[in-house]
């Protein structure tokens, strides 16, 4: 399929290019002392991603440890409240550790093992990436440091406990707004001092090349499975695919399976409390081109051109930029990016829980809310939503701040 001059038959062979760019987005804007480390990671990844031994081991892990493939569930009762459009969810909440994050964490730690590293470092917001990396580190016997903002530590206490039980060292970040951006800053700083003995396992399709590509490739299993499963269930492709977008790993995972198909694709950003700067984290919707954390993309900026303060009820979405591939797909028009606010997300959280017996992560509830909105708009057809994680981590926070609806 050709779209705005891009041949999606060969898309994954051409993007990113050899320097890590998706059009004008991406690249590796890093200190000179980290260039050799990034080159080492890039060379190692390009080697093992074509290795039958690596691929075979990763497939075995996904099958025997992660519990893949995860199923697709038809939301019959929820669909019945919305009209004639039919909703389905890809159940990444049933992936081991409760979210899609383990898909790339097992790959990244397997890469670290291949490179002879003894430790992995990462940031986390909602804690799902931290739990997944701690799980992978325990599986392979590596040390693990997780950087997490003070605000998110308080919001996500169950995931903090899980990381510690799994043997990870959770390091509290108290600078700035004490959320995801600051956790990334701290993790990068630590990696710059320890790169010879460890690898930084970025938690999304962000950061310097090769991480946006590498995380996308590891997450592509979601889209590959979903496409095959939906065809098997219904005999046709969905009319629309929907996923939430913070950094954008779960969304790139499922989107990658449908980019070359006549399917509408929607990325859902967090509108938070509203469109005022500082009240949301909808970088693609309200941002402009800029560089942060080693990559060029679309980001939210303050009056000085620096990354702006952001907010979302979902700790995993409050990041002031999005992955460079998302920026590229936005500019092409292949993916439509739209917003959902806190209130609609919480309403969707309870709707999915009460009508279908599935408690979603607040991040995933953004996608569910948009899928519900889209169902009313299109009237008929089928919508596949990526349910990127389960909501155990969010229940105490929701009960405290929103009560039981």
Provide an overview of this structure:
The chain contains 16 helices and 16 strands. It has 405 residues and is an alpha/beta fold. It has two domains: 141 residues, Rossmann fold (3-Layer(aba) Sandwich); 224 residues, Rossmann fold, CATH 3.40.50.1100. The chain has a six-stranded mixed beta sheet, with helices on both faces. It has a four-stranded parallel beta sheet with strand order 9-8-7-10, sandwiched between helices. The mean pLDDT is 96.
Low-confidence regions:
none
The dominant shape is globular
Could you report the average pLDDT, rounded to the nearest whole number? 96
CATH architecture of the largest domain: 3-Layer(aba) Sandwich
The biggest sheet, with number of strands, parallel, antiparallel or mixed sense and barrel status, is: 6 strands, mixed
Which radius of gyration do the C-alpha atoms yield?
A: 19 Å
Number of strands: 16
CATH names the topology of the largest domain as: Rossmann fold
Total helices: the number is 16
CATH top level of the largest domain is Alpha Beta
Structural class: alpha/beta
Spatially, the strands of the biggest sheet line up as: 5-6-16-11-12-15
Structural domain count: 2
DSSP strand content: 15-25%
Helix content: 40-55%
What is the rounded distance between the termini? 45 Å
Q: Quick gist of this model?
A:
It contains 16 helices and 16 strands.
Topology:
Blueprint: E1 2-3, E2 6-7, H1 11-14, E3 21-22, E4 25-26, H2 32-48, H3 52-66, E5 72-74, H4 76-80, E6 86-91, H5 102-114, E7 119-124, H6 128-140, E8 143-149, H7 150-155, H8 157-165, E9 169-173, H9 180-194, E10 198-200, H10 211-234, E11 240-244, H11 249-255, E12 264-272, H12 283-286, E13 288-292, E14 295-299, H13 324-332, E15 336-341, H14 342-356, H15 362-378, E16 382-387, H16 395-402
Parallel strand pairs: 6-16, 7-8, 7-10, 8-9, 11-12, 11-16, 12-15
Antiparallel strand pairs: 1-2, 3-4, 5-6, 13-14
Helix pairs in contact: 3-5, 5-6, 5-10, 6-8, 10-11, 14-15
